[in-house]
Specification:
GO terms for molecular function: glycosyltransferase activity. Belongs to the glycosyltransferase 92 family. InterPro entries: Glyco_transf_92 (IPR008166). One of its GO terms (cellular component) is cytoplasm. The protein is an alpha+beta fold. It has 2 domains: 128 residues, Immunoglobulin-like, CATH 2.60.40; 261 residues, Spore Coat Polysaccharide Biosynthesis Protein SpsA, Chain A (Alpha-Beta Complex). The protein is 19% helix and 27% strand. The strands form 5 sheets. Strands 3, 4, 5, 6, 7, 8, 9, 10 and 11 form a 9-stranded mixed β-sheet that branches. Strands 12, 13, 14, 15, 16, 17, 19, 22 and 23 form a 9-stranded mixed β-sheet that branches. Strand 13, helix 3 and strand 14 form a beta-alpha-beta unit. Helix 2 crosses helix 6. The relative contact order is 0.12.
C-alpha cells in the first residue's frame, strides 16, 4: 500500500541463536582423590562461598547512590554503584527506581539550577546515534548540561550539547533539543537525567529513554498530533473531530491536555478506554507563564501559545517508530481528500506524484460559524450538547493567492528533525514539504470567526460526503457517554 523509502523503518535481523551440534563426549574414569587434596578443596569452597560474599557485601554498602561522574573522569570500580539489573515493577509495570534513584516520566521535569524543563527523551538512530531530549528552555540563560545515564545499574555521565529551535516568536522560552552522546562504557542506557554543570549535585530522578529499539514493522499508518487543549468545553466538536479522523483512516490521536470541563473529560476518557486516544497531561502553565497567542506584544507571556511547538516535537518523536505518518494539526481542522475518501488512499497517490522523502502540506481554508447555516443535516438530538454541528457550515472564505495562507502537514516522522506549527524547520534530507494542490486535498478549518462584510463565500459541500457515516458515529458516542 505504501512505498518504502530511504527513511523507512529498516528491518533488523535478529542474531540467530547458536545451533552447534553437541560434540560427542567420551566417558573416562576419575582419578583417585588423596585425603590432602580433599581438604584443600574444602578450604577453597569455604572461602569462595562464605568469606568473599561478606567482603563484597561490606564494600557494596559504601557505594550506594554515588554522585555523577564527570565525562573526563576515568571510571574505577570504587566510583561505581554495585551493578543491579533493572527489574519491572508489579504486574510488568515500569520500575519505580533505577540505579537506586526514582523514575519520573514527566510530563515536564525541571533541570536543577536551570530554567529548563525536559519533556521526553528518545534514542536518535539517524546519522549519529545519541539520546535526544525534547525540552523547553530559557533562551538567554547561559547553560552547561550533563547527561547522567543509568546503564546496568551504573551511573555514567557525559557532557551534553543543545540546540534551540528557530521558531520561538521572540518569547523568552523556546523549544530545544539536548543531545547526549553514548559513552563507550554504556552503549545501551535505559534511563537518563539532564543535570546542570555542578556534577557534585546528586540527581533526584531518572527519565525513561524511549525508542531504544527500532521495531521490525510499524503498528500504525496514521497518527494525529493535537498540540494543546486548554479550557476546552465543546463536546460535540470533539466527538465530530474524533469520528471524522476515524472515517479518514486515522488509528491514533494524541492530545496534550492542559484543562477541560467535566463533560469533555468524559468524552476523552471514552476514547482513551477504546485505545484510540493517548492523553498526555500538559502542565507547562505550572512552571512558565504561557501566552494565549503567537504575538508577544498582543498576548504577553514567556512561551508561545501554551507550549504548542514543544508538544508537537515531542509527539513526532513519541510516534516516530510507531506510525508511518503523523498529522500535526488542531482539533478544529480536517484535512479532506477531494477525489478519494481516506488518507489511506490519498497518501500513496501523493507519494507517486512527489516521492516518499518529503512531507505534504495542506492549505488552510476557513469555514466560519458566523456564516449562514445549512439545515440539511440538522440533528434534534444534538441540540442540547455543547458545541457545533459542523455539517451546518459549508461556506468558506476565499484565500488570497497573493498572501501566505497557513498550512498543516502530514509527514513521515522519520524525516523530521524539528517541527513547528505550520510545517517543518529541519529534516534529515534537507527536503521540507511540498504543497498539495487544492483540487486534490485541502484543510477545512471550522471555527467561530468574523470575516469582512461583503465577502463572497464559496460553497463547498465536500464535508457532506461523510455526513451519513458521521451522524451515525457521533450519535452512538453521544448515547454511549450519556449525552442523549
Amino acid at each position: 500500500m505504501f512505498s518504502k523509502g530511504k527513511y523507512e523503518v529498516k528491518h533488523e535481523k535478529l542474531a540467530s541463536e547458536s545451533e552447534s551440534n553437541p560434540s560427542s563426549v567420551k566417558r573416562s574414569c576419575l582419578p583417585k582423590i588423596r585425603p590432602f587434596t580433599l581438604c584443600l578443596v574444602c578450604v577453597v569452597i569455604y572461602i569462595s562461598m562464605v568469606v568473599v560474599p561478606k567482603i563484597q557485601e561490606e564494600n557494596g554498602k559504601k557505594l550506594q547512590n554515588p554522585k555523577p561522574i564527570g565525562p573526563n573522569h576515568q571510571n574505577k570500580p570504587s566510583d561505581l554503584p554495585k551493578p543491579t539489573t533493572t527489574k519491572d515493577g508489579p504486574n510488568g509495570s515500569p520500575p519505580s527506581k533505577v540505579c537506586r534513584i526514582k523514575v519520573e516520566n514527566g510530563p515536564l521535569i525541571k533541570v536543577n539550577r536551570h530554567k529548563t524543563y525536559v519533556i521526553g527523551s528518545y534514542v536518535e538512530h539517524r546519522a549519529t546515534k545519541e539520546i535526544k531530549s525534547i525540552a523547553i528552555m530559557q533562551r538567554h540563560e547561559p547553560v552547561t548540561y550533563y547527561c547522567v545515564m543509568c546503564c546496568d545499574g551504573v551511573n555514567i555521565s557525559t557532557q551534553a550539547k543543545y540546540s534551540i529551535h528557530s521558531d520561538h516568536y521572540n518569547f523568552d522560552y523556546g523549544t530545544a533539543d539536548i543531545m547526549c552522546k553514548f559513552s563507550h562504557t554504556c552503549s545501551a542506557p535505559t534511563h537518563v537525567a539532564i543535570t546542570a554543570n555542578n556534577l557534585a549535585e546528586s540527581i533526584t530522578s531518572f527519565q525513561t529513554i524511549e525508542n531504544r529499539v527500532i521495531p521490525k514493522s510499524l503498528r500504525l499508518n496514521f497518527t494525529v498530533c493535537i498540540s494543546v487543549m486548554f479550557d476546552y468545553n465543546k463536546v460535540l466538536d470533539l466527538i465530530e473531530a474524533m469520528e471524522m479522523f476515524t472515517l479518514l483512516g486515522v488509528q491514533k490521536v494524541v492530545i496534550y491536555k492542559t484543562s477541560c470541563d467535566s463533560a469533555t473529560q468524559k468524552v476523552l476518557d471514552y476514547y482513551v478506554k477504546s485505545g484510540f486516544l493517548e492523553l498526555i497531561p500538559w502542565t507547562v502553565e505550572k512552571h512558565i507563564k504561557v501566552s494565549m497567542g503567537w504575538q508577544k506584544e498582543i498576548s504577553p507571556g514567556e512561551l508561545h501559545y501554551h507550549g504548542q511547538i514543544p508538544a508537537l516535537n515531542d509527539c513526532v518523536f513519541r510516534y516516530m517508530y510507531q506510525s508511518r505518518y503523523v498529522a500535526l494539526q488542531d482539533i478544529d481542522e480536517l484535512i479532506l481528500p477531494l477525489n478519494v475518501r481516506t488518507w489511506t488512499e490519498l497518501l500513496p497517490e501523493l507519494e507517486k506524484m512527489h516521492g516518499n522523502d518529503v512531507g505534504f502540506e495542506f492549505e488552510n481554508n476557513v469555514f466560519p460559524f458566523t456564516a449562514e447555516t445549512q439545515n440539511k443535516y440538522e440533528q434534534d438530538a444534538w441540540k442540547n450538547v455543547p458545541g457545533t454541528n459542523i455539517l451546518k457550515y459549508v461556506d468558506r472564505i476565499p484565500n488570497d493567492p497573493y498572501r501566505f495562507n497557513n498550512i498543516k502537514v502530514i509527514v513521515n516522522p522519520r524525516l523530521v528533525l524539528e517541527a513547528t506549527v505550520h510545517g517543518l524547520l529541519k529534516t534529515v534530507n534537507g527536503h521540507n514539504t511540498v504543497r498539495v494542490r487544492n483540487d486534490i486535498a485541502r484543510m477545512y478549518h471550522l471555527k467561530n470567526c468574523e470575516y469582512p462584510r461583503g465577502t463572497h463565500l464559496i460553497r463547498d459541500k465536500r464535508l457532506w460526503s461523510y455526513a451519513d457515516d458521521l451522524i451515525k458515529a457521533v450519535s452512538k458516542v453521544l448515547q454511549d457517554c450519556g449525552f442523549t
